[in-house]
């Protein structure tokens, strides 16, 4: 296989990447590592005023330009060069990328090999966001990254953003989180990766003290300033789509505003139909007694929140009829929480539970479930 073989635009991995991108209008879109041009050309033909696709491989650029001409797409530009080199002097309100992320001692296949740790190309793309992403603009990617001992993946992303990192919000949605051994075992079972490559992966991840491998969608937004940046991370589940990531970004942004959070007290929360309560019983004085509680939800985020017994009582009453303030007054009256608990602290409970998808809020409904990618 030649090093510059073009990554196919009609396989499952690419379809998942395209499905992770919002279809909302934008002025100027850049697709970094465009390959066949599928993301840039799809955007130009549907929702981008103009799209640029760049790739380091000349073969990919020729394929993408051929596809542009064959489809008669006039509002797209295909350029050759490393990362942002071909678009110096331009800025964009949307940047997307499906970069190489496979650890490799040296680059043999351009579309897949992401450097010694698998994150070199992604790091370069994110390092360029302060220069090329406009205020209010968004960056979207689908990648593999590592949670290392003492450093979560999101912490490293913020380091890549550099001195201007506080200008950027970050929302990560994991589609899978696996240990290195589990990841390698699955790759071995599929039979598509050789033993030398698998050995290198394990050696690399062991050297970096990797706890888990994050595979999922990352959204970075450049905000207008005047507040602290948002960082959120969830695990996707059945029905998840890109609109849910956008909803989470807006929810966390709103909750960072004290006025918004104070308003939560007058909103109406309810449990989704798939919510489950799990109770751990242990023997105490010869009888089983409940000692731990966890509430789980399976759409659109795979969430589990461990809680105290008073919160179980609270959640059981959340049917959307009462305001959060009504619930606050009730649990105080019953002596389930301290009299010193403030409105702001209690509103923070709703913020957390709604952000995890455990509770739904009538005033800020979640987007409809997305259709599965086929």
- What count of helical segments does DSSP give? 13
Tell me the span between the first and last alpha carbons: 27 Å
| Helical content class | 25-40%
Strand order of the largest sheet: 3-2-1-4-5-7-6-8
Overall number of structural domains? 2
Net shape: globular
CATH superfamily of the largest domain: Vaccinia Virus protein VP39
Total strands: 14
- Poorly predicted residue ranges: none
Sheet-strand content, in percent, reads 25-35%
Order of helices and strands: HEHEHEEHHEHEHHEEHHEEEEHEHHE
pLDDT averaged over residues:
92
Can you tell me the CATH topology of the largest domain?
A: Rossmann fold
Rg, alpha carbons: 23 Å
Main β-sheet, in a few words?
8 strands, mixed
Instruction: Report the CATH architecture of the largest domain.
Output: 3-Layer(aba) Sandwich
Structural class: alpha/beta
CATH class of the largest domain: Alpha Beta
């Amino acid at each position: 296989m030649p090093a510059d073989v073009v990554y196919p635009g009609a396989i499952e991995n690419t379809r998942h990447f395209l499905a992770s991108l919002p279809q909302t209008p934008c002025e100027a879109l850049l697709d970094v590592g465009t390959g066949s041009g599928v993301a840039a050309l799809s955007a130009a033909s549907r929702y981008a005023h103009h799209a640029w696709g760049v790739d380091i491989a000349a073969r990919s650029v020729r394929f993408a330009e051929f596809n542009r001409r064959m489809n008669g797409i006039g509002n797209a530009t295909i350029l050759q060069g490393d990362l942002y080199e071909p678009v110096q002097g331009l800025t964009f309100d949307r940047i997307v990328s499906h970069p190489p992320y496979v650890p490799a001692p040296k680059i043999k296949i351009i579309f897949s090999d992401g450097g010694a740790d698998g994150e070199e190309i992604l790091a370069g793309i994110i390092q360029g966001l302060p220069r090329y992403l406009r205020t209010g603009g968004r960056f979207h990617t689908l990648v593999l990254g590592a949670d290392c001992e003492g450093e979560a993946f999101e912490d490293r992303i913020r380091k890549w953003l550099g001195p201007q990192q506080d200008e950027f919000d970050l929302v990560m949605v994991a589609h899978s989180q696996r240990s290195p051994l589990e990841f390698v075992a699955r790759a071995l079972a599929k039979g598509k990766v050789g033993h030398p490559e698998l050995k290198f992966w394990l050696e690399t991840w062991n050297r970096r003290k990797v706890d888990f491998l994050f595979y999922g969608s990352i959204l970075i937004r450049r905000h207008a300033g005047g507040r602290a940046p948002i960082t959120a991370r969830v695990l996707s589940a059945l029905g998840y789509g890109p609109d849910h990531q956008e909803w989470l970004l807006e929810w966390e942004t709103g909750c960072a505003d004290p006025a918004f959070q104070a308003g939560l007290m007058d909103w109406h929360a309810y449990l989704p139909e798939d919510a489950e309560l799990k109770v751990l019983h242990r023997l105490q004085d010869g009888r089983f007694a409940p000692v731990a509680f966890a509430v789980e939800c399976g759409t659109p985020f795979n969430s589990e929140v461990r809680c105290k017994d008073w919160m179980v009582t609270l959640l059981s009453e959340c049917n959307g009829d009462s305001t959060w303030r009504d619930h606050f007054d009730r649990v105080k009256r019953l002596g389930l929480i301290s009299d010193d608990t403030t409105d702001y602290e209690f509103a923070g409970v709703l913020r957390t539970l709604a952000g995890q998808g455990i509770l739904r809020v009538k005033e800020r409904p979640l987007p409809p479930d997305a259709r599965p990618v086929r």
